[in-house]
Amino acid sequence: MSGIADGIAENLRGKRFIVTPLRLYGELLKGHLESIPNTECVVVSSTISEENIRELSIECDCVALLDCSRTAVSEVPDTVSRQVEKFGSDCRLVVLDAERGRNIENDALAAGARGVFYEADSPDTLLKGIKAVMAGELWYPRRFLSDQITSNRKRAKRFTSSPQLKNLTQRELDILTVLGTGMRNEEIADKLNISAHTVKAHLYNIYRKIGVNSRSQALLWASRNFPQ
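Given the sequence above, the corresponding structure tokens read:
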């Protein structure tokens, strides 16, 4: 890694990286995450070069914290998009210190943010959410995700011009629309009256057809490709 001392790159593998301009946030989060057995974290300034952060994201679990407490609602989409582009899709970006009621969730999700945390959220909520994001999940209010997925499902039924959507079966569309509620495969299976093994097979087909590798990427794809 060009901006990191020679010989360190090999030692970074397996560690979790927290990228943030808020050093205190990062150190507090580092302390909490390292309470998990066999977990080692490194706090990195968000001024790190684009080249280095992309390399870190590929080699390691990486989460970027974006403070939007002073960002105007109208600027959230561009701000998130720029940071996602800088860090790359392998680095999981979340929005911090959002004010409830500003309705930034839809724009943040569409721009690529993996989660939103609010000013009033407790440290325990932040820790739980970061763990979920680093595990590949999205962290948004359940009601928002439920409304989002329901809306996407209705639009998908009317939408016929996307080749990728045309390739999805109705059952695959059903599964795609409930992923954002945070259900595990077993819960999706119960809801749709199918086996967990069948859910897993459908997810594999969905990912292959739309060109993604994870639940969160599938939901981001849906938010960008289902018509508004």
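The chain has a mean pLDDT of 76. Try to locate this feature in the token string yourself.
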